[in-house]
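Ticket #4471: structure export looks truncated?
Reporter: QA, pipeline team
Priority: medium

Steps to reproduce: submit the single chain below to the structure queue and open the exported record.
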Amino acid sequence: MPKATFPDFGLTEAQRREAVLGHYYEYPGMDGAKGEIWCYSDRFSYFPGDEVTLFISSTAQTCDIDIIRDGGTETHIDAIKDIVTIWQDSPDQVSVEGCGWQPTHRFTIPAGWTSGAYRLTLRATGKDGAPITSHHLFILCPKIEAGPGDRKGRLLQIAATGTWTAYNTWGGSNHYQGITGENRDKYATRVSTQRPWWRGFAVLPSDAPRVPLEIETPPATAPRYPHMEWAYATGHSKKYASSGWASYDSRFFRWAERSGYAIDLISQHELHFRPEILEGYDCIVCVGHDEYWTWEMRDTVDAFLERGGHAARFAGNFMWQTRLEDEGRTQVCYKYRARAEDPIYSNGGDVTRATNSWEAAEIGRPGALTFGLNATRGLYAGWGGCAPRGVRGFPVYRPAHWAFAGTGLYYGDLLGGDAHVFGYEVDGLDYVIRNGLPEPGGEDAYPEGLEILALGMTSLVEESADIAIEDQFLTDEDGRFVAETLYGSRSDENLEKVKRGCGMIVNFPKGKGEVFHVGSTEWIAGLIKEDAMVERVTRNILDRYLAKSTS
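Actual output as written to the record:
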């Protein structure tokens, strides 16, 4: 671990505490005398020939838009000039209800645009004459009518749009904090896609901290959270490092194109509403922080695997079932309050669709049955008070596995330690050690043939004998929720059973297909930092699943 001190962002101790424990967010009018411009589109994703509708609210009378395809190279695609704009009022509960703005501009996507992410930069003049900007992003899917042969040898990346939606702070409420409820202090159980993205979602400066700590924590020191301190100091969203195109999904897409892979991009909405879009692909890819899925999304992936497809999941925290309503414009997830508040429990509905953890017994569909791992046995590592001085990489247990070919790894080596690929949220499984090797066991359901290749330690609580609980971000709420989910109550005894977890790399067959799951949100850090072993393992997986010869 590098020797360094905590970065100084010019914050007082009180401001640092507010940065971590406070609730701050983007909202219309927040920039006051400077003026501002905001934008959202009617959908996450489109197909060639579709019409895109933009909804813009601005203190300026006109704006310009530059459209960039954000791939292996940034390609300027189009410029739209002198769009007439007005200020559009938003409801108080805009995060839940959506903005409800009038359409500002429409354009049709040309047939020649290729699949990927298209970033919009909106520019206008502020009230004080200085420039104001904002960013939006939409996904262009591959042509749905493409023949199966057109997709051979191509990767299909599935953007974690459910997690994007859950973390979006714009308007004051998301699935974590909020201004809902009688006292305006509850997270939202319903959030709208019809609102702008948070600041830091589409683009970030290169020095924006990631969640895992890149410094050595001194002894007996209260946890620090540099990513949230930086966000508070620079005016970015508190959740910029937890999710989003800029922090996660873009990093793999760019790396793949620069590395010579042909790759397409879709949103999770396509898995839910257009399952046929996977036809013809050999390998789908999930990346980064990928926490929220619907039942239908899992159905689509399970069917793809059963008929011979491959899934490369370089992602962590497979935790929550969601529901989509209003033709996908509203995401529902009651989470910790599901059993008390989700109406599906009380109205005679199908409780297997409850918006609870996948590990809840009444849902009857453990997460590991799709991707081999689950979040309740994993979660936090390398940040705050959760193993802040931990391994940083994956301890390798089965170095002879095909995925590690060409790396020179030995039993007990750390994979990706220099790049800090282990964290910030990871997925695990109950296991036993036999003859020095981990095997799936205990109480979790898991797929037949699952092999554990690497395993590291995690925590569900910031557990220390020296640090006061008021100086900790997580408390023990997550641990007690998992205790209740897995063992029926939030007791101290059950908390003791679950508060220590693991993060794993696993591989297993599923039907005629196969899954390789690197259960960490931060695997992408190894690609960002060009870690040779991480890149080699990633290539080994992709090349095998695309039926290429490895070198």
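Status: closed, not a bug. The export was complete when the record was re-opened. Leaving a note from the reviewer for reference: The chain has a mean pLDDT of 95.
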